[in-house]
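Quick one: structure tokens for this chain, please?
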Amino acid sequence: MTGASPPDMEAPRTVGDPPPGIRVSLTADDPADPASGIETLHTAGDLSPSGAATFPVRSSFTRNGSDMAVPDWPPLAIVIVTYSSGKVVEGCLRSLDAALAGAGPARVVVVDNASADDTVERVREVAPEAQVIQTGRNAGFAAGVNAGIAAADGCDVLVLNPDIRLAPGSVLLLRQALALPGTGIAAPRLTGETGRLHLSLRRRPTVPRALGEALLGGYRAGRIPALGELVVDPAAYGRPQVADWVSGAAWMVSRACLDALDPLDERYFLYSEETEYMLRAGEAGFAVRYEPRAVAVHLGGEQSTSSRLWALSSANRVRMHRELYGRPRGQLMRLAVGLNELVRAVTRGGAGGRRHRAALRQLVPLREWPLLPDEEGAPPARETSAPARETSSARETPRETSALAREAPSPGYVCFSAQDWWYHNRAHSDFQLMRSVAAHRKVLVVNSIGMRMPMPGRSTQVLRRVGRKLRSVAMLVRRPLRELPGFYVMSPLPLPFYGSPLARRVNALLVRAQVLAVSRALGLHRPVIMVTIPTAWDVVRPMRRRALVFNRSDRHSSFPESDRPTIEALERSLLERSDHVVYVSTALMGEESGVTGDRAYFLDHGVDTDHFRRRPESEQPADLRAIPGPRVGFFGALDDYLVDFDLLERIAVELPGVSLVLIGDATVPMERLTRHPNVHWLGFRPYEQIPAYGSGFDVAIMPWLDNPWIKNSNPIKLKEYLALGLPVVSTDFQELVNYADRVRIASDGALFVDAVRATLRDGGLQPADTMRGSVLGASWSSRAAQLMALAELSPGPR
């Protein structure tokens, strides 16, 4: 809800609304309709709350009298978020078969927010093929949608309230609308059970519109576009159009839009989250398109009868305005919304003004963000009652949640990284995940505290390593990314003598004191703690936390310079004591399943496809363009425990007419390679520049050593190469089994050189566009959404 409430949100049936027993015959010859000419007759189905008839899913539709195959759209996933929705979700599920007629098959994902009734049992009975995700708590509508989207990589997503009944053929119409150029979101016409129109189109929220609604009422203000957010003209609902946003009971989002935007903002818990998302989509060039021929019956809910829900809706209008435009304009919206509630609290009095008085109590004072229902002292969630009659709500998106309660901030995150932000490659998974999490949560990244003190004779480049760590410590605490004001990085001063029990205790006390001091200053009192480096176990073991996540991205005990028995013991403690263990290697996950059990979770790497896009030659760096082609390239850390330098030298010797381009910091002297005239080591380059360099490669290589480290790894580099559309040649390791159609794999040096020759000759196994398209669904934001959904399941403090 973002607007003031008109007296009745149902309009007379004057624009061709189908009756309750819907028989839809779609014949469109309207020149204003881009899908004109479709002629599809669907069998009538009972869309009453008792459930719809089951209709077969068709794989074709009729156009101008001819059967047509379903267009080559991305696959579709239907995401339904439930909370104690047992009385209504069955009818939603039964309506899907007929709704999908002509649109092809779809996956159904039901995300249940800890229902107190038999919702999950009913879903499994009615739709046994549906994927059910149980979040374990009432985390809110946005969190549920994000979890569903995260489970639907590569799909367009249709988001439904559980009290929605889709009319036959509606999904095909929404998919056609979504396919129109520039469209990112498509929404149907909403009606009530009687067939009366629900006013679901909205204009962008502004302070003048909030004032207009306060003084005139939502319905009357809506007649004047400058003074009302709600579109009230019934004729507007009879024609396709682009809206600023629409009521979020049913809406379809394209995969391109999902990949381009960060997930829904979970801080709102309920109300305004889809408003903010749709406005954000519009600003990114993804239009919100209304398709009136697609119809959804919305049974309605209880926002208008629940004082708590009404109050949250009003408060979130203000929060959204504050986030979009800053605190000064947020305060103006607060005054306008407060005036609206004050006028109605006074004029309606008694029970009629109860919800408006509750809203005023929310607005004065206004919490920064809502509390979740499971926060201490919050009243329990109530079950969803039978569908309530639509009344004066200006928004028909009840979410089936009668649960609301007091408001609580979402947990922040503290990440003990295995890298250092200030001098390592920022493409590492813990940095990428935390950057995406920071779009929704406050994040503190703790730079690597090391696994062993660098020593002469045992470590390479000792003075350089010590010097760069001291320079990192001198950075103290910083916010390095202007676009992410909630993302902080600190470098504690460690004493990395992990072989001595006494030194370990002293180091843990020292590092913990520094991290706790910064965490408290940032308001991170009970964060989710993610640990990537095993030596952080001593530090985090007694720390108060929401959950502990072990990011098992590598087997660190295989690191050549580590104190192996000590690091193995620390890894074992984390495997046994963490709430969740996330893996990028299926091999390592399977190997350790006896220890982790059902706490293990495969969280594949993502890739920043916006960043890793191919640059034309004119945008490639001058030092790269000066290197003659063809170019065989590698970017990343040139570590002696990871990269096969013998293989690199063999490439240089056996392919003298090829330029071998190496980009990255090196832990070993590079003279053995640079003495060859066709080897070009360009050294470290900032993350921001890496795609421009990679765009100049003719072949990208992954020349890994055959050791335990790589066997249990899943290099991010692979997806970055593919996102650039580069042909790839790699040595063999477990995770390549899923990429054999795109990557040439070589088991020894001679075969590797042969594979490079073959790739230079034929351009690779797949076209560049196919390579890039294969990873477009693997965004870091979707991976972060999965991580948050997993990590925030854990109940109670530690």
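Confidence is low (pLDDT under 50) at residues 1-68, 374-408, 453-459.
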